[in-house]
């Protein structure tokens, strides 16, 4: 009996050693995929599956990338992150910027050969604001100040009354409530793409369900795809007006949701791009193919001001000063994220006069300072009885468990009388709790949709649906409104008003910015002009080339 | 007479199965109703828009009404549409797209795992306390304790990355070759469980008096093993194997994620996380149907394998 146990144990031991050796080999494996790349095909990892290829209903990043590369709106984004005319060849402003007239390119065609017309834009945009479709992008037409957009979205007016008209085949007229300084950035987003009405109606309910139920006006077309496939292939659109400048003939997007597997696929040459998260960032830092770009959004703590105690500014400031974002990014996250210094993320909004980053021009009062934290906490203790709160976070969101645990330990260490309870839930539940104000403090994020500080600041205005902190400040509201009305054509004054608004927001500590994410990835060194955009469509393939 | 008994038995079991399915469906409906959050991508949607969407999809109606509408639609093969995972795609289409690959890999893993497991267990039992027995026990312990994702990683590294024998990721152009590594990664647990179970069952049966009697009657060892020992040891093994097979066929999230297989396991988990009610209910229903159907089939199979069960049923 004893010898049997011994033999079994020996076998088990050898097997465990064998598995360990294999695992360590996996971790130490070297890159060998570069040679497999050719100049005509680019293979990319895609972390999530496609939710929809309907421009009005494609919300997740993978879908937005595909939709943004097979469709093209009036504008696209250049490699240096600037909006650039695309389907429109000319724009004329009238009525002090309240009427915009776009001339559609004569050579713009759909993949079935039909011309792209102004009516295609009218049809697509009316569809986005149609309450029956309830598109999550309808707010963008509202942000664009297109006449009647708000009333149509609320179901009070007919979509036909939207302030967008076709004058002849190639002239598109836009009527706005007021001029919008960031209009070109907004119009480069995928939801502003045109839809050919005749084709749409012929497809009925099948529209966008497979690659055959779509036509394309962008640099690429989709080949042999149906909903639920684990890969999607884009091929160069032979009817695209600028096809001679599209260098890569084929783009293959492969669904690989496991990051470790994506790295293996990258090293194997199965993909030329793999996104990195968590520890894999650190492990691959020394690779010559390692790249990192600043991410599009900040993670921050949002306080629900409707809760007694959390409406206390001193308490919020005490918490803000007790968190060491530097340590959080360098020792906990270790994924290239950087401490956030303002509510508006870095690297996406620049001054129209001196091109300085908005985030660098605002005050950053909350670098880690335990003494100040204690000072504010002692003050707050006299004003409120709150001695504990619950911090909610999404368990399906990257690293949030570690971040929440770190925040709890930091606050409890610096402010000994304050107790932090952690509550984990699905992201959807976290959002629902925030929308219904049934939370106390949340770990949350917000991604900007267009390159202007108002894309972030708008959510803190009184009565805004996304004002999850229920915070309200008259001066902030007034500065925000002035920036969008009387200062709209005075770029410098407008910019300064927005800086003042951000400073008021930061001083209130209604939300405490923690860190700005980074996009870390492995990219074959032969791939060039592969640029991650900080807002809107994250990647445009038409500028990419392989050499 | 026996046929009438059998038909009556099948009829009774069918009605029971249908009632079970109906109860499962209702409980699912009830549970999803209490889940927090909405099924829509609603970060930037206004309350009015959400209201419109709830009305559009009938989610603003009372639970009982929704349940009845769903059951009515389901009887015509309509499982509704996806709210967010694949917006407006029919659930029937989504399932018919993902189920075959999950079933294929699950069946492959079940067949490979159970065949090797049974052989391993039986030989270990017949050569009790030998080196082979120790080896089989070792494999069993390893198979139960090493999770499938570790095996998936090892197999991928050796067979895909190092020697390029099989695709690293699932590819529809190499459909069968793409399923070999997932099958191997998945089958180990079944193999180990069945090996352990069949070994102990065989040993138990071999010690029974009727086996001693058969042996004393002078039949050959081959006849003894095939006609008496294996046949008797198989019944409990089938009981274990049936739910294991259904589990495998329903799709493994870990394996599907590891090999990028567009299967039902990953669709199910994504649907739960996205609150995509129709997809969750649709897949749960299919899973329950598969489970109840298999148990029903196994019940019938018992009768074929063991005449004693047939007789007992007839007695009732």
UniProtKB/TrEMBL annotation, chain A:
The keyword Acyltransferase does not apply. Residues 82-463 form the Solute-binding protein family domain. InterPro entries: Peptide/Ni-bd, SBP_5, SBP_5_CS, SBP_5_dom. It comes from the Bacteria. CDD domains: PBP2_OppA. One of its GO terms (molecular function) is peptide transmembrane transporter activity. PANTHER family: PERIPLASMIC BINDING COMPONENT OF ABC TRANSPORTER, PERIPLASMIC OLIGOPEPTIDE-BINDING PROTEIN-RELATED. Its main location: membrane. Belongs to the bacterial solute-binding protein 5 family. This is Oligopeptide transport system substrate-binding protein. One of its GO terms (biological process) is peptide transport. It is a lipid-anchor. The keyword Heme does not apply. GO terms for cellular component: ATP-binding cassette (ABC) transporter complex; periplasmic space. It is found in: Cell membrane. It holds the Pfam family SBP_bac_5. Keywords: Peptide transport, Protein transport, Signal, Transport.
UniProtKB/TrEMBL annotation, chain B:
Belongs to the binding-protein-dependent transport system permease family. The chain crosses the membrane at residues 15-35, 105-126, 138-159, 179-198, 237-259, 279-305. PANTHER family: INNER MEMBRANE ABC TRANSPORTER, OLIGOPEPTIDE TRANSPORT SYSTEM PERMEASE PROTEIN OPPB. It is found in: Cell membrane. SUPFAM superfamilies: MetI-like. Residues 99-302 form the ABC transmembrane type-1 domain. One of its GO terms (cellular component) is plasma membrane. GO terms for biological process: transmembrane transport. This is Oligopeptide transport system permease protein. It comes from the Bacteria. InterPro entries: BPD_transp_1_N, MetI-like, MetI-like_sf. It is a multi-pass membrane protein. Keywords: Cell membrane, Membrane, Transmembrane, Transmembrane helix, Transport.
